[in-house]
């Protein structure tokens, strides 16, 4: 009995500490463990949300993302490093394998240090391009902080981007929020539909390398400018793993969580970098935007049997699915955005039906969606399939396979119980009787008698 109580306490403690729906093991990679004090507020906020943080340097011998083929961490945060290469345990291939194993990665860059080649190659695999010299900084002569960057103009003061992807949930949007973006490394996104720029540079900004370029910048030598430059970008892989690239690591430092800034006009504002960093890290570490399927039911209308394996063509069926969404520390009912729809496909090789799933009921932690329809006049192996894949939310792909049979001989409209079937039944009966009579006559008819033989010739 004592061991049972201990087990219950351990399970309760695990549930209380795991605030992320995915896991709470976070690895922070930085040059020196002492550097974490520069990001103490940000890291304390993350730790307060239930994360178990481990600090390692790239040179550490104990640093391993995998052990015996399994992930040793759920999330990885890379802070700026002066090391050119991150070593054999953090190669681009290992980082890609980590994402393929559903690990989440957050990369913070800075123009004050050179980006390690491993991270450049890793981001390139994700179709995210950094400046060739790996030290370019974003400059804007119209949206800079006049208090701290009166000469270099490399501390941008921007409004948080709104309406990032119309019609979808706004986990990463903070309308009306001012952000300070110091010493940012701008990056360019490829054409992958998995990528989303969360914060773009203003139209007047450009990427500039003070080491390679003089005071007068040739437009032909620019890496990118204006809306081409992304300052914060996110990627959600096909397995729902998440990668976030923050072009300015200084955004996460204590200095810019508390500092004031002012635009060219001289108006002082207080950036809300702390709130923005909370949203970015919470989404990256799967504390928001995580969907869970609780149950799926399909049944014949009027029947109490759920999830049968066999239906008949033209049956009327009901289908329901229960979905919850993780919101920081609890599961809540999932709500489909107004401009979006959750759909059910009833398909063989291609869909025979594609129907909207409408909300039917809601509890404290789940919402039930459902629809009713008539099965097609086609027998075979079919699938009830829900394939809901949207940016910012983990993907839902659920499939239930059933067999659909044709009608039995006594289920057709011209059955013997209907008077209209008598002509067909009579024809069958007449054919059978005639065949039996013919056989009887043939079998019981005696062969003709032979004539008397002629006399032999004399």
UniProtKB/TrEMBL annotation:
Cell location: Endoplasmic reticulum membrane; Membrane
Subunit structure as annotated in this protein's UniProt entry: Component of the oligosaccharyltransferase (OST) complex.
Pfam families, sorted: OST48_MD, OST48_N
Membrane topology: Single-pass type I membrane protein
Gene Ontology CC entries for this record: oligosaccharyltransferase complex
Superkingdom, natural source: Eukaryota
Domain OST48 middle: 304-445
Coiled coil: none
Principal location class: endoplasmic reticulum
InterPro entries named in the record: DDOST_48_kDa_subunit, OST48_MD, OST48_N
Similarity annotation: Belongs to the DDOST 48 kDa subunit family.
Function noted in UniProt: Subunit of the oligosaccharyl transferase (OST) complex that catalyzes the initial transfer of a defined glycan (Glc(3)Man(9)GlcNAc(2) in eukaryotes) from the lipid carrier dolichol-pyrophosphate to an asparagine residue within an Asn-X-Ser/Thr consensus motif in nascent polypeptide chains, the first step in protein N-glycosylation. N-glycosylation occurs cotranslationally and the complex associates with the Sec61 complex at the channel-forming translocon complex that mediates protein translocation across the endoplasmic reticulum (ER).
This protein's name: Dolichyl-diphosphooligosaccharide--protein glycosyltransferase subunit WBP1
Every OST48 N-terminal domain range: 25-284
Position of the signal peptide: 1-18
GO BP of this protein: protein N-linked glycosylation via asparagine
Pathway this chain belongs to: Protein modification; protein glycosylation
Entry keywords, A to Z: Endoplasmic reticulum, Membrane, Signal, Transmembrane, Transmembrane helix
Membrane among keywords: yes
Transmembrane segment boundaries: 421-445
């Amino acid at each position: 009995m004592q061991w049972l109580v201990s087990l219950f306490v351990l399970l309760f403690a695990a549930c209380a500490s795991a605030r992320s729906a995915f896991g709470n093991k976070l690895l922070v990679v930085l040059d020196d463990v002492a550097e974490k004090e520069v990001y103490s507020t940000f890291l304390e906020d993350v730790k307060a949300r239930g994360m178990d943080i481990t600090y390692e340097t790239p040179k550490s011998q104990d640093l391993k993302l995998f052990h015996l083929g399994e992930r040793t961490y759920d999330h990885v945060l890379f802070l700026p490093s002066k090391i050119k290469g991150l070593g054999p345990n953090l190669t681009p291939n290992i980082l890609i394998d980590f994402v393929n194993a559903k690990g989440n990665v957050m990369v913070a860059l800075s123009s004050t240090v050179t980006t390690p080649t491993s991270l450049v190659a890793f981001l390139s695999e994700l179709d995210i391009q950094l400046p060739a010299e790996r030290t370019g900084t974003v400059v804007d002569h119209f949206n800079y902080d006049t208090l701290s960057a009166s000469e270099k103009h490399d501390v941008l003061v921007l409004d948080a981007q709104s309406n990032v992807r119309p019609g979808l949930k706004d986990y990463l949007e903070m309308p009306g929020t001012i952000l300070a973006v110091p010493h940012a490394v701008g990056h360019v996104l490829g054409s992958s539909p998995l990528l989303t720029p969360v914060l773009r540079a203003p139209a007047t900004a450009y990427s500039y390398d003070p080491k390679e370029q003089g005071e007068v910048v040739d437009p032909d030598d620019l890496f990118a400018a204006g809306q081409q430059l992304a300052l914060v970008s996110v990627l959600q892989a096909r397995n729902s793993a998440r990668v976030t690239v923050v072009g300015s690591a200084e955004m996460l430092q204590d200095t810019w969580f508390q500092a004031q800034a002012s635009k060219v006009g001289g108006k002082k504002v207080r950036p809300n970098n702390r709130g923005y960093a909370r949203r970015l890290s919470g989404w990256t570490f799967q504390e928001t935007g995580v969907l869970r399927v609780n149950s799926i039911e399909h049944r014949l209308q009027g029947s109490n049997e759920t999830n049968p394996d066999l239906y008949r063509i033209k049956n009327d069926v009901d289908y329901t699915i229960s979905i919850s969404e993780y919101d920081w520390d609890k599961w809540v009912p999932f709500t489909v955005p107004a401009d979006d729809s959750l759909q059910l496909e009833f398909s063989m090789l291609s869909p025979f039906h594609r129907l909207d799933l409408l909300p039917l009921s809601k509890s404290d932690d789940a919402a039930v969606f459902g629809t009713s329809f008539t099965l097609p006049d086609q027998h075979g192996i079919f699938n009830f399939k829900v394939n809901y894949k949207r940016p910012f939310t983990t993907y839902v792909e659920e499939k239930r396979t059933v067999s659909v049979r044709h009608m039995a001989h006594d289920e057709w409209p011209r059955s013997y119980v209907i008077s209209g079937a008598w002509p067909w039944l009579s024809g069958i009966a007449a054919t059978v009787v005639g065949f039996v009579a013919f056989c009887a006559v043939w079998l019981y008819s005696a062969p003709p008698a032979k004539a008397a033989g002629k006399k032999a010739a004399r």
